[in-house]
Amino acid sequence: MATQRQLLLSFLSVGSLLLGAAPARAGGTVLTLDDAYVLARKNNHDLKAAHARIDHSAIFGSLAALRESQPLTALTGAAHAAAWADASGAIACLREDVGRHNALDKLIGAMARTNRPLIPGFILSTARCSFEIVEKAVRAGASTLVTISLPTTLAVERAMAAGLSLWCLARDDSVLLVNDAAGPRP
After folding, report:
1. How many whole angstroms separate alpha carbon 140 and alpha carbon 135?
2. Is 142 helix (H, G, I), strand (E, B) or coil?
3. N or C: which end of the chain has fewer CB within 10 A?
4. Where on the phi/psi map is residue 28: left (φ > 0), alpha (ψ -120 to 50), or beta?
5. What is the per-residue pLDDT across 143-155, written as a single tens digit (0 to 9) for each?
6. Which of the four pLDDT bands, split at 50, 70 and 90, describes residue 18?
7. How far apart are the C-alpha atoms of 30 and 146, rounded to whole Å?
8. What is the per-residue pLDDT across 28-76, written as a single tens digit (0 to 9) for each?
9. How many CB atoms lie within 10 A of CB 153?
10. How far apart are CA 80 and CA 84, in angstroms?
11. Positive or negative torsion for Cα 155, 156, 158, 164
């Protein structure tokens, strides 16, 4: 009998995670999106624990590297990206898709499949900062999310409740810290 982890890995190798209420079937066993997030979460720490604050220069560096690391966007001009960058801003994993949710799902799946934790470091997303994008980052175990747009009110409330640091309106020379969950400043 295949383990849940083996089922997730085989499913991820075939395609990206499916969204919505319908579960995916892998080897006769039902594998839900919840199962994928549980596996991803096992690689990370409790979000309520203090985490290191990301420096502005790391965000600016990751944005510059993101533009250079998007072949689908370069080809079509119409793709979203989700990347994981270490605390210095170096991008270690990047996934693209025409769907903003799919890009993030692919990133979380790739990180879980290779047992790479989302802490320390941050998720950088070209997606609109909705409640769902924040919830996915929280459920995957990220401590910090950086997006290029303003968040919805629900997104901010969820980030605050979960202890997720949330940076928004990320540009080449500016970024807005919406929720600072990294603990007291020195």
Report:
1. 8
2. coil
3. C
4. left
5. 999 999 999 999 9
6. very low
7. 32
8. 444 455 655 555 555 444 444 557 889 999 999 999 999 888 877 778 8
9. 8
10. 14
11. positive
Task: Give the amino acid at 67.
Answer: R
- 160-184, pLDDT tens digit by residue? 999 999 999 999 999 999 999 886 6
| Residue 167 CB neighbours (<10 A) | 22
121-134: average pLDDT: 94
- Evaluated on CA atoms 165, 65, 95, 86, the torsion sign reads negative
H/E stretch holding 85: strand 80-85
CB 100 within 8 A of CB 125: yes
Annotation: CATH topology of 46-179: Cytidine Deaminase; domain 2 (3.40.140)
Residue given tokens 């047992």 in the structure block = 115
Q: Find, among 125, 135, 55, the residue nearest to 95 by Cα.
A: 125
Residue extents of the structural domains in the chain: 46-179
pLDDT band for 119, please (50, 70, 90 cuts).
confident
The whole-angstrom separation of Cα 144 and Cα 10 is 28
Q: Which amino acid is at 144?
A: T
